[in-house]
Design the sequence.
């Protein structure tokens, strides 16, 4: 029988996934020795094991490696809701590692397959030595936006590169979508506005795969309000919120800042549990 275990950063999501799928969640003990070494001890696993483990820092990475080793003899499916280091997917400067490759290679040992959620660059999947598939939370974010009952909503990507994601979010909702176009007015001034659809008298929802520092979205929020948007919401899959990013974005004036539970926080209003279930239960 398939069972679920998790690292310390994905406890809530693992519990939600267990409830959604009807699979058993096996409790796991985590502690740190005085010298800084990590210790994990999981309960009895079965012939098939799902490890749900976001890699948000070095400790969560080591915990995941230890959990994989604890499952020797089991058919292991590794679900990485958020894969840290994935944005270093190529060598940008001499002497740099391809960090995504190093992480993927290490995690590939002892597992049979891997799922990621809206990984920043899908080419990273090729670094795994086992079958790897990226799942998309876009339809579930679309459903969440529909449930918000906003008046005349407009879904916006923060730039052209994220336009495809915005399109995927809006695909089954019937909502209009566009992307923000940046125009440089001077050496110090830029203007961001929807490329094709005006924001005037509309509720705008900015969607993206990741919010890192929140600076760009805070600026966009202010400009959209100047252009007549009645309110602005920010929704992402991965809420990193580095360097005070959540506070910075919130101070920019959006009506809400929402993320999923790939990185668990108070802003995690959209769960990826059903998305994971769709891959596990076929």
Sequence:
């Amino acid at each position: 029988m398939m069972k679920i275990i998790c690292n310390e950063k994905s406890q809530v999501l693992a519990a939600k996934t267990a409830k959604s799928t009807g699979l058993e969640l096996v409790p796991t003990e985590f502690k740190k020795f005085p010298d800084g070494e990590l210790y994990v001890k999981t309960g009895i696993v079965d012939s098939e094991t799902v490890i749900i483990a976001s890699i948000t820092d070095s400790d969560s990475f080591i915990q995941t490696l230890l959990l994989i080793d604890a499952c020797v003899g089991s058919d292991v499916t590794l679900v990485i809701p958020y894969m840290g280091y994935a944005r270093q997917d190529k060598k940008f400067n001499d002497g740099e590692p391809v960090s995504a490759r190093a992480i993927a290679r290490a995690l590939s040992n002892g597992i049979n397959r891997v799922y990621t959620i809206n990984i920043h660059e899908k080419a990273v999947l090729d670094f795994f030595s086992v079958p790897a598939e990226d799942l998309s939370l876009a339809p579930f974010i679309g459903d969440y936006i529909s449930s918000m009952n906003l008046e005349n909503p407009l879904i916006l990507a923060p730039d052209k590169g994220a336009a495809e994601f915005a399109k995927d979010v809006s695909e089954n909702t019937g909502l209009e979508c566009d992307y923000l176009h940046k125009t440089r007015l001077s050496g110090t001034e830029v203007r961001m506005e929807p490329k094709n659809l005006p924001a005037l008298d509309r509720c705008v929802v900015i969607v993206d795969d990741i919010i890192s520092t929140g600076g760009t979205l805070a600026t966009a929020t202010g400009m959209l309000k100047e252009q007549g948007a009645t309110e602005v919401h920010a929704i992402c899959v991965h809420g990193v919120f580095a360097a005070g990013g959540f506070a910075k974005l919130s101070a920019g004036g959006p009506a809400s800042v929402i993320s999923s539970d790939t990185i668990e926080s108070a802003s995690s209003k959209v769960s990826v549990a059903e998305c994971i279930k769709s891959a596990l239960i076929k």
About this structure: The helical segments are 11-21, 58-70, 99-108, 138-147, 163-170, 215-226, 245-251, 273-280. The mean pLDDT is 94.
